[in-house]
Structures are given as C-alpha cells and as structure tokens.
Amino acid sequence: MSTYTATEPLTPTAPSERIVALDVARGVALLGIFLVNVHLMGDAIGALILEMTGVDAEGRPLPMADRLTMTAVMVFCAGKFYPLFSMLFGMGMVLSYDRLTASGHWFAQAYLRRLGLLLVIGLFHAWVLWYGDILVYYAVCGAALLIAAKWQARTLLIVGASVFVFGAGLVMSVTWLLEWVSQSMSAIPPPATGPGPLANSGSLFLQALDALGTGQATDVDSPVYIALEREANAAGPWYDALGFRLWNWSFGLVSSLLGLGWQVIGLFLVGAGLMRAEVLLPEHRAVRRRLMVVCLVLGLALAVLVEGLRAVLGGPWEMTLSYTGQSSVGAVLSLGYLLALAEVCERGWLRPVLVGLAATGRMALTNYLMQSVIASVVFAWWGLGLFGTFSAAERVGLVLAVFAGQVLFSVGWLSIYRMGPMEWVWRTATYWQVQPIHRASAPPCG
C-alpha cells in the first residue's frame, strides 16, 4: 500500500491499491441483483407475487420453464445479493477511512458528501426509473458507519450480526402479521357498494385505489389491480405510471423502517468487520476456506429448506418466507459467495471472466443505473411498452443479454477512461474537486 502525507490532494483509490476480489464481487452482485429486480421492473408486483406461488395473473399454472426460473431465482438470488452489496459497501468504507485518515484528511466531511449525492441519485432513480432503488437506503443507513469507523473487527462483527438479527426478526414478525391480517380481511365479503367515486376519474392509478377501497380488489395481486398497473406502465400516461411507482416506493420505505434498514446497517458493519479482520488476505487463507465451505453448504441448504417450506405451508407464511426468510438465509450464502470469489481470484481461475467482472464492478453505480434505464426502455410506456408481456424465463434471458453487454461496455470504457461516468460525478462531489476522467489526463485511478 502507498503511504500518504497530509499535503497530498484528496483523490480516488489507485488501481494498485484496489482489492480485485471486491471489484469482481461487485460485478457478480450486479448480475444477481438484476436477476431479482427485473421481475419487478417488467411486471406488476401482484403478478410477481402470484408467479412465486406457481400461477400467472389469470390464475393459470405457470409453464415449467417459468416455474423452474422462479425457483432458481428464489433459492440462489432473492435476498442473496443485496446482503453481498451491503457488505461490500461496509468494506469500501473501511478502506476509504483508513486511506483518508492516514493522509491527514477528515474522513467524515468527504464521506457525508458522498452519501448526500448518493441520496440525490437514489431519489431520482426511484421516482423517475424504478421504485425498487437501494441507493436511498444505503445513503441513509450509511451514516451509521461514521460512528463505527474506528471500531475494531471483533466489535464490528458482533454489533453488526446483532443488528442484522434484530432487523430480520422485526421485519419477519411484521410481515407475517400484515400478511395474516390481509388474508383474514380477504375472507370477509366486501360490502356490495359497487364502484367508488374514483372509478370514473380517468386516472388508472386512482381507479386502482378505488378498487382497493371498495373491495373490487382485495390486494395488489387481484386481477383488477394488476390489469390497471400493467396498463399504466405499458401505455401511460406518465402521471399514472408515476402514481404506481411512488405508491410501491412508499411501501419500501415502510419496510425499511420496520426492519430492512436495520438489516442493511448490520450488513454494513459485518462487511466493515470482515475488512478489519483482513479475511481476504493470503495469510488468512485457511480460515477463509473453512468459513467459505460452511457458509455455502449451510446457506444453500437453508435456502432450499425455506423455499420448500414456503411452497408447503402457504397462507401467511408463504410471503413471510419469500420476503424475509430468504433474505435472512441470504446473508449466510452471500458471505459464502464473497469468500468463494476471493478464492477464485487468488487462484487466478477464469482470468478473462474475472477481468470482465472486475471492470463491471469498478463501474457498479453506472451499471446499476444503466440496468434500470435499459429495463425502462424495454418495459415502460415511453419505450417499447412491453410491461407485463414477458414471461419469467424471458425476463431472465433479457438480464443475461444486457449483463453480457455491460461487461463488454465496462471493459471498453475503462480502457479509455479512469472510471465510469457516474463514478466520476460521485467522486468529484466526494473529493470536492473535478477528477480527471481520461486516462491520458493523469495517472489512472479506480
């Protein structure tokens, strides 16, 4: 590692100081997150809920290809990659803290600017492109890392694990309670009042709210509601698509307050603790390999078990296990993924693949936002308007094609430029000075 003095300017991390395994893990996490997100990007949330139970929006059994696709996504991806991304965020914070404090700079000032811009980008992403944005949560929850920046590895790991377990228990309890109440209420026949005052408003979003309020739609997975959400996103107008997007986003905020935010903070701290413990360094190879095997075997076994229980138990437990069981298990499996990737990088296996994934991970913010832009072009009313028309297997096919293009784009871009375009914006704001972006303009940085 390089040494710094207080007179050196505040600059991004140079390539020689980057840990390649972290960049590769970010690239893999981008793929995993997209494999989950695309199903919400491309269809109504109620349709996805039904797909996870094995039927389509009309109640017909899903084709085998789609059922296998959804099962694979639930077991290997759902709730597995946002924990990985979160731990990587905590790891990155530790690296930034150590580097900036060693150079005599005040870490908190640069870090808060970094989070502030991330919040702005996240809000734009959620309100304009896709409601399932994670950046807002990272910006808000990331502030908690300022308190823990100086903590030792043991403290970070213990506190992080405790906070995660608390958040997981809280969100599981609340989700189960809400789902039980929803199922109980749906068993009560609605009053025969007919359409409400918003039914003829001309607004698809207001009609959906009217259907929920009058009992014509018992939940977001009711055919009436799904049809209205699909039409608004596929055909517009923009204000109805925005209405559904903000409505869904608001439920995400509630979820964060009721547990997800605590889980993210816990994962940030665990990631920071792993970096402080230097588990990725060669001298800890033996311990890392043992932990990798335990996390992969235990995580996969629990993921399969949770998916099996979800299918068998049904009722309130079905959605509870879908939303929270897999994410709790996902923390274990995602750690296994991270350690396995570190092992692959250390051994130098699949080097061309690793180079592509590392380049994609170095441009994680750009590629994350690009995925939403491309999905919007394909599905949204202002693009091709194909919202609600792709099957689950077709959506996964789209992800694989887009991600392959992103890998090629990232490798090509970084052969000319020092960082991705959004990374340039983010780091310029973080370090409070315009960063050179072209490789010919300055020594290359990450």
Secondary structure layout:
Elements: H1 20-41, H2 45-51, H3 64-77, H4 81-102, H5 107-129, H6 135-141, H7 145-148, H8 153-186, H9 204-214, H10 223-235, H11 238-276, H12 285-313, H13 315-347, H14 351-362, H15 364-379, H16 392-414, H17 421-431
How would you describe what is shown here?
72% of the residues lie in helices and 0% in strands. The protein has helices at residues 20-41, 45-51, 64-77, 81-102, 107-129, 135-141, 145-148, 153-186, 204-214, 223-235, 238-276, 285-313, 315-347, 351-362, 364-379, 392-414, 421-431. It is globular. The model is unreliable at 1-11 and 442-446 (pLDDT under 50).
Search tags:
disordered N terminus, 446 residues, globular, mainly alpha, disordered C terminus, 72% helix, 17 helices
Short description:
This protein is mainly alpha-helical. The protein has helices at residues 20-41, 45-51, 64-77, 81-102, 107-129, 135-141, 145-148, 153-186, 204-214, 223-235, 238-276, 285-313, 315-347, 351-362, 364-379, 392-414, 421-431. It is globular.
